[in-house]
Write a structure and sequence with these properties.
alpha+beta, two-stranded antiparallel sheet, 3 helices, 2 strands, about 10% strand
C-alpha cells in the first residue's frame, strides 16, 4: 500500500518541478535581452511565418528564444497583428511589447 503512494507522490513532485522550470524558462525567455542597448531595423515580408520572424530576431540577438516568441504569439494571438513592414526593434524591448 505504501509503495504506490510513494510512487504517485514522486511522480507528482517531478511534474510540479518540471512545470515550475517551464514557467521560469518561459518568463526568462520573454524578458528583454538586455546588455548594451542596440536597435536594429527588421523587415517583415508578406507571408513570413511566426517561426521565421522569431528565428531572425533570435539570430540578431533581439530576443532570447524564438520558441518562446512563437508560443507567446500563438497563445495571445499576437501573430495576427504582425504586418509586412519595417520595424525598429531594441534588444531591451520585451517580447510582450
Amino acid at each position: 500500500m505504501k509503495k504506490p503512494l510513494i510512487v504517485t507522490l514522486a511522480v507528482m513532485l517531478t511534474l510540479a518541478v518540471l512545470a515550475a522550470a517551464a514557467v521560469l524558462w518561459y518568463s526568462w525567455a520573454l524578458s528583454p535581452h538586455g546588455g548594451q542597448e542596440s536597435t536594429q531595423r527588421v523587415a517583415v515580408a508578406s507571408g513570413d511565418s511566426l517561426s521565421s520572424i522569431g528565428d531572425d530576431l533570435e539570430k540578431r540577438g533581439l530576443i532570447r528564444s524564438s520558441v518562446a516568441f512563437q508560443i507567446h504569439g500563438r497563445l495571445h494571438g499576437d501573430y495576427r497583428n504582425i504586418k509586412a513592414s519595417g520595424y525598429i526593434i531594441s534588444n531591451n524591448q520585451s517580447v510582450k511589447t
